[in-house]
Amino acid sequence: xxxxxxxxxxxxxxxxxxxxxxxxxxxxxxxxxxxxxxxxxxxxxxxxxxxxxxxxxxxxxxxxxxxxxxxxxxxxxxxxxxxxxxxxxxxxxxxxxxxxxxxxxxxxxxxxxxxxxxxxxxxxxxxxxxxxxxxxxxxxxxxxxxxxxxxxxxxxxxxxxxxxxxxxxxxxxxxxxxxxxxxxxxxxxxxxxxxxxxxxxxxxxxxxxxxxxxxxxxxxxxxxxxxxxxxxxxxxxxxxxxxxxxxxxxxxxxxxxxxxxxxxxxxxxxxxxxx
Amino acid sequence: xxxxxxxxxxxxxxxxxxxxxxxxxxxxxxxxxxxxxxxxxxxxxxxxxxxxxxxxxxxxxxxxxxxxxxxxxxxxxxxxxxxxxxxxxxxxxxxxxxxxxxxxxxxxxxxxxxxxxxxxxxxxxxxxxxxxxxxxxxxxxxxxxxxxxxxxxxxxxxxxxxxxxxxxxxxxxxxxxxxxxxxxxxxxxxxxxxxxxxxxxxxxxxxxxxxxxxxxxxxxxxxxxxxxxxxxxxxxxxxxxxxxxxxxxxxxxxxxxxxxxxxxxxxxxxxxxxxxxxxxxxxxxxxxxxxxxxxxxxxxxxxxxxxxxxxxxxxxxxxxxxxxxxxxxxxxxxxxxxxxxxxxxxxxxxxxxxxxxxxxxxxxxxxxxxxxxxxxxxxxxxxxxx
Lengths: 275, 386
Known about the structure:
The complex is a heterodimer of chains A (275) and B (386). Chain A contains twelve helices and ten strands. Chain A is α+β, with helices and mostly antiparallel strands and 275 residues long. In chain A, the strands form four sheets. Chain A has a four-stranded mixed sheet with strand order 8-1-10-9. A two-stranded antiparallel sheet of chain A has the order 2-3. A two-stranded antiparallel sheet of chain A has the order 4-5. The termini of chain A are far apart. In chain B, helix 2 crosses helix 8 (197-223), helix 2 (51-64) packs across helix 13 (312-337) and helix 8 (197-223) runs antiparallel to helix 13 (312-337). Chain B starts with 9 loop residues before the first helix and ends with a helix. The mean pLDDT of chain B is 94.
């Protein structure tokens, strides 16, 4: 990039006049020259170069590619035991703290039928369904209210539909928690680290004051692996591309009747429950 | 003009020192919160906004209500408000400052507050709330200060201030409308999902703000020689009267829509507030107190004999304040979060530290208000002495 003396002085003058400090001046003169030094990529930026505009980091060639990720939960197969295994795996590998009381953190948890589907209650429904414990998690909605309300883009949606959290940008306003109609977000009211029984060193822990949630194990997809819950559930939770008509997920959705949580809200949740 | 705040009676200085002590205590409590996180509050995974955001919502109303003075005075040349318009504008400044403080103490990561400006997000109502609140603060500071300065110099206010004053009228409406939008646009929160949230907020604001102003007017009259005039009080009382009627009317409209449609995700919140849900009924006595205060205030304010009575009027204003404060400062936020989206009931009540921080912020507002009023009343006294 050729910058002659006259141009340099002009730009420096403008930059100075605008009160732009050192690094900003550099950005004007030679865009990108300071990127490497100044912008330490977050783990997410390393994994998701495109959505973060960080094109110099190559994605892992083994990464799973999907146009629109989703999950099918087969309630006939999901025993309490399998559900607990899935939850345990998620909690361990994501360093989800175990905080007792009402300020707890939940990424994926068990809840009753009437709690997961408060608007479709039916007193005469099959007791097997009515009394079943359903897995609740982030629905990675097509039209996520949490992304809409976030004032800093700390909650954002990737092109493949996954709703992500940038823990380094979150200001802890908790608007996303008010916005989520599924109660799928948790806030770190305190430092979570003392409440992690055994730390998994390959995944970051969080600090107090930020919101967190399930991320469909985006860090696993990036290296060609399925989400922990899908892996640990013994086939009861199937992860896949809802846009791919040939996927196992779509085959299941064709073969059985499925329900989604609060469909009337138009959020288009991407977690389907086969009942 | 600020030098007027530097000389005052013993009572003035004692009051300022008391406020500083309370602010100090609140700040101490905030340091505990800053250190430990919001765990020191009564908030939870289910009720993720609490007392701070509720006070913010209430005070936005108090701030917006300045328009009830500015509009008649500047738009309809209602001269009676000439003496107190500045008091309304200064009350708005103190209220907006408290709003901003309440939002700040509510953040989990206050050190990142500038992210709202560094990453402007027009799809978030919070972004617009920041714009309208700060804008309103600046507008009122400029308009109030410039008109007061002109008054002191016995000159007509400069021409350029007029458009700013006119701008303050729709702007006042905007701050409370945008604040209502924070809640009103959320799917899955039946209690807040109502198009009359903004008008309801404005009605209660136009009741609460002028009621506070009447009470302040009486206080000022007692402490200084400044009297806003009987007619100004009476007009303000009429505004409070109409507004509190509208407030209760809008509430009844909500009750009709919710109760007649009988959609569980909407009725459950009102049930929780007014009758308790699954044995949880923390707020029941409060909301009924609010209703009782509201109705009593209406009776006292509608009747001209009681409304014009200088001992009953402040009492009615206190009732209006209690009614609207419980409605917005307590019930509005908790009522929206309980029951939660999974129809589980987790109740909320503020902790001692949370209350201390809240009182600290109110004291900071009182400090700003005292200083601004001292300046304004000082200028008025000077002018009358000439």
